[in-house]
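I had to read the description of the data format several times before I understood it. For illustration, here is how one protein appears when written out as sequence plus structure tokens:
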Amino acid sequence: MKAIKIVALAMVVTVVSFIGCQKDEDAVNPNVEVSSAERPYNALMYKDMIGMLEHYDKTRKPVLENALGFEDTRINHYSIETLENYIKYVKQLSKEKGIEFTGINFVSVAYPKNTGHGVPNYQNIMLMPTTNINAKNIAFDPVQSSKEEVVTMKEMFAHYGYNWVYDSKEDYEGRKVVSKRLQENFMKRRSTEDLESSSSNYGHLSPSME
């Protein structure tokens, strides 16, 4: 069990919402046969894992604990069923609209103080599907996209006045420059209609403060 948790942790630490409130308590059925697979190219050796864990302990954990007053999330757990269902859902939406689904971004976020779910101020991750735009993996929303137009997460976030700066080097370097339109959308966010997204969340967080 410790090894499984460490592998899950290593994935979360190296990456920078789920449309339902599905519980992640389901267990994998050991009687279900799966086809054989080769060892993934990104599978880790234990010394690599321990090196990353220790570096996080030394360089991240103390800073977060001093700033927050408690140990923040270290593990985000999603059941196999939850992940498989999410990927199947995004694949289906993308296929229906003729959009290439290239992968998933695991994005660090934190529950706000007025959250309706989760633990306020507690870090978690948000899953965002990506597609190929100009030879780059760009976060997009197959729910809001159509056969005629791919709608990116950056565009959707801008609709609510949030400046997403992680699609390109140019965006990131210009992150301190906020357009007038973005400021206006931020001011009217409360009155803007809330829309469904294709992002995912609601994993089981550890250590838990609930």
Remarks:
- Confidence is low (pLDDT under 50) at residues 1-28.
